[in-house]
Amino acid sequence: MRSAGTKKASEPSKASLEEIPEVDFSRARVRRSPYARKIGARGRRQMIARFERESNVRLLDDDLAELFPDSRSVNDALRTLRDLAKRVGRPPRRRAA
Q1: So where are the chain's domains?
Q2: Nearest to residue 59, comparing CAs of 67, 50, 48?
Q3: pTM score, two decimals?
């Protein structure tokens, strides 16, 4: 609900459009971020590692990502695996002879 003092933005007038100079972007050069080269592949790996350490996000390999389209399916599969492991239990350890 709008208050009585606010106005809806209207289309610009023809006169105001004529005052705006036209800009030619054909000669514009794209300048790459000076930090992109400094970060490089090593820096990206470090950023990903830090992100994984500081959050609960985990990256799946491509073949697994095809099997699990969303986080719910991953969680369901892991819970099923956990429940199966609890039911089966641990196999006894073999002693070295």
Answers
A1: 30-88
A2: 48
A3: 0.40
